[in-house]
Each structure stands twice: as C-alpha cells, then as structure tokens.
Write a structure and sequence with these properties.
Blueprint lengths: L14 E4 L2 E4 L2 E12 L19 H4 L13 H10 L11 H15 L1 E2 L13 H7 L1 E2 L1 H15 L3 E5 L3 E7 L7 E5 L27 E3 L5 E10 L2 H14 L16 E12 L8 E7 L1 E2 L4 E10 L6 E3 L3 E4 L6 E9 L11 E2 L7 E6 L13 E3 L7 E2 L35
Parallel strand pairs: 1-18, 4-5
Antiparallel strand pairs: 1-2, 3-11, 3-14, 6-7, 7-8, 9-12, 10-11, 12-17, 13-14, 14-19, 15-17, 15-21, 16-17, 16-20
Helix pairs in contact: 2-4, 2-5, 3-5, 4-5
C-alpha cells in the first residue's frame, strides 16, 4: 500500500491508534459489485488486417481523435510512433498486425510501468508526457499507447479487464471488422479470455474514480476476485460489502475452459483524512459490457466513517446508438458529519464502517435512448440513505490492487498488484 502524507487536521477527525500513537484515519469509499462474467473470446489480429481510414464509419473515426490525456498526433506521439515503426517497409505501415507488433517490441524497451498504487486520476500524466518520461502507471501507459495507435490510424480505446488495456478496432481484408484487446505491457494469450469491465463510448477514457470537489487528492482502489459459482461469489460479496475489503488470502485459479464465472469487485478510493464538515461525491464505473453479456448484477456501498451519511442513487447508464455500447456509473454522496460526537480512539482492525444495502441491477439493458443521454437504469433499484447497521465492519486495508502479468492459461482468481 502506498502511504500518503497526512495534513494537519482538527481534533474532530476520526483517529486510530497505531503503536500507542493517535493518527488521523483516511476516509475510504467503495462500491462493491457482484458481477456475472462470460468469456468473450477476443479474437487475435489476423495478418491481413489493414489500416484504412476510408473503411471506417464516422463513429469509429472518433477513436482516432485526440482526447484529454490521449494527445493523438502530438509531436511527442509522432516521434515515438516513428521510432517504433522505423524498421517497417512502406507497404507494411498499412498492415495492422505489422504496426502492432512493431509498437509492442518498441514499448518493451522504451516504456517502464511504475510499481505501486496509481496516483489520483486528475494527476495522471498525459500520453505525450509518458512517452517523454519513458514511464508511467498502467493507466498512463495505456494513454500513451492509445495515442500512438490512433496516430497510426488504428481506432483504439483505453479500457480495463483487471489491468489497464487497449481495445482496438481491427479491419480484415475480407472478413467483417471487430473490436479486440491489445496489451503489450502484459502480453499473454489469456488476455483474450478476460471480459472488459468497462469500455468508453467516445474518444475519452473512463476514470476509475471521479471526486467532487475537484482537486481532492485520493488513491484509487480497484480490487477483484473471481469465482466459479454464484454461491461462492455471493458469500464474498456479502463479506466485502460489510467490511470494505477481501480480508486477504488467495482465491484458487479458475478451471480451464470455463465459459462463465462470477466476480466481486471493490472500486473506489482512499482519501487523506477529511474533516467531518466536508462532504464528498464519489463517482465510479460499475463493471458492465453489453457486448459480451457481462455485468454487475448487485451492488452495495461501504464507507469507513460511520458518522457520515451515505446516499447512493440508482446507477446511471449512457449509451450510443451507433456503437451499441453502455457505460454504467454509480454516484456515491458521502455527507458531512458536522456536529457528530468525536468517536473514541479505536484500535487498528476494530469496527468502524457501516454497509449500505445492495441494489439489484438488470442482466442487460435493451438498445434505445438518444445518443449521449444519461438515464437511470430501469429497475436498477436504489440503495437510498445509508442504513445504520451495527459497527461490525473494519476499515479496508489494501490500496489500489491491480493484477500482475497473467501467465498463459485460465483466468486467475485473484487481482494482485501490478508487476512488470
């Protein structure tokens, strides 16, 4: 876990005792999700795939454009792309498989993934800065690689499947075009077995956490486990919903050949101690990929400070008529606790966090609604105001945990810190 410096605070902030010394406790906010997952079978890039902007629809061309954090066509990106494909012949620069292989080979030598928890999303370097520095966290590296792909003429979207990855649009000569995943940072055949948790509808990216007021520092948290049956996953879901973390331990790898399984994810952030009089609104994406039928079926919310009111409304969906995708987000309003009595110093590991009841989500959402229109998901349910439950939860311990490089074979049951 990456430890962040703690600012001086008033005496009203919740404290814990570590080795006899009182110190302010960070505020932890989590959306806990029970996810039904199906093996997507992302196809490999065929050798005859071409780079041809003339064959792209207007919607697909949007994924060639520059966006916040993804400066396609900038001088730094053009310079990096030129270095990557320098060894290709003129005709090969229009062959997607050749260009992808060249960028992958170049990136292994030129880019380094920084270890540890990623920083707060607003502070992430853009793709050009990453290429100049030659390093970045996993999300920053995907920004840089997405910018390079777009500059090369390959539509690309930054995404996440347990690790930050790129989703690219491939155009074979004869067969229909398709989207697939690409990850030169952690290359492995098993990447094609994993569903994406979310996929941007437009040129930008989906942040794993957005906080208001803006400028609030945080450490994003994305931690997940995979289970063969819903029964196993529901037991873990209930425990994480009550405690905010998975409690350590290892989950056995899933058996090879599974076409479907269940996952539990905790998505949110850790914040430097926040004064009780200050409220936060935390927005996170919920795993949902309409294209493969994978998605959140139930969710709950956990916040480490029991003195705060918590309201989580219905998840909101946003879709696009041409692309047919769907993005599902949850807004968590963590209210102020001004006037609440100062809780006594609490030993580490003791109970401090209430759980918000889960809300059931639909299996899928039918097509419809105008492009770009954000609407509540029908029948999604609402968790409503926090239900005060007995303080039987403990604060979440791990910071942002992301999967390490995955070996060939079946999906791992654990999400572990990134290692390169």
């Amino acid at each position: 876990m990456v430890k962040r410096s703690m600012a001086a605070l008033s005496a009203l902030v919740l404290v814990v005792v570590v080795g006899g010394t009182a110190q302010a406790a960070p505020l932890k906010v989590r959306a806990i999700t029970l996810v039904e997952s199906k093996a997507p079978g992302w196809p490999a890039v065929p050798e005859d795939a071409v780079i041809d902007k003339g064959r792209l629809s207007a919607g697909k061309k949007a994924f060639l454009a520059s966006a916040r954090g993804i400066p396609a066509g900038s001088p730094a990106v053009k310079k990096a792309l030129s270095a990557a494909i320098r060894g290709l012949k003129a005709g090969e620069k229009a062959q997607a498989a050749k260009v992808l292989a060249a960028i992958e080979e170049w990136s292994v030598k030129a880019l380094v993934e920084e270890r540890g928890a990623p920083s707060c999303p607003p502070s992430w370097k853009d793709g050009a800065a990453v290429l100049k520095a030659g390093k970045g966290n996993g999300f920053e590296l995907v920004r840089a690689l997405t910018a390079m792909l777009r500059t090369a003429g390959i539509p690309a979207r930054p995404s996440f499947n347990g690790s930050p990855v790129a989703c690219i649009f491939v155009t074979p000569v004869k067969d229909p075009p398709f989207w697939t995943v690409w990850d030169p940072i952690r290359p492995s055949g098993s990447i094609r077995l994993m569903p994406l948790l979310w996929l941007p509808l437009r040129a930008g990216e989906i942040s794993p956490v957005t906080t208001e007021p803006k400028g609030t520092p945080c450490v994003p948290v994305i931690e997940g486990r995979r289970y063969a049956t819903r029964e196993e996953a529901e037991k873990v879901f209930a425990g994480v919903k009550a405690s905010g973390d998975f409690g350590g331990g290892e989950t056995p790898p899933l058996a090879a050949g599974l076409s479907a399984w269940w996952e539990v994810w905790a998505i949110g952030a850790d914040y430097d101690p926040v004064e009780p009089s200050r409220a936060l609104t935390v927005t996170v994406p919920l795993p949902f990929l309409k294209e493969t039928g994978s998605g959140t079926r139930e969710h709950g919310v956990w916040v480490s400070d029991p003195a705060r009111t918590v309201v989580a409304g219905r998840p909101e969906s946003e879709t696009d008529q041409e692309l047919g995708g769907l993005v599902l987000t949850l807004k968590i309003k963590v209210g102020a606790a001004a006037g609440a009595p100062v809780p006594p110093a609490t030993p580490v590991g003791a109970a401090v966090g209430p759980a918000v009841p889960a809300a059931k989500l639909p299996a899928a959402r039918p097509e419809g609604g105008p492009s770009g229109n954000a609407t509540p998901v029908p029948d999604a349910g609402a968790s409503g105001p926090a239900t005060k439950s007995p303080a039987d939860a403990k604060p979440s311990v791990p910071a942002a945990k992301l999967p390490a490089a995955r070996p060939e074979g079946p999906p791992s049951g654990n999400a572990t810190p990134v290692a390169r």
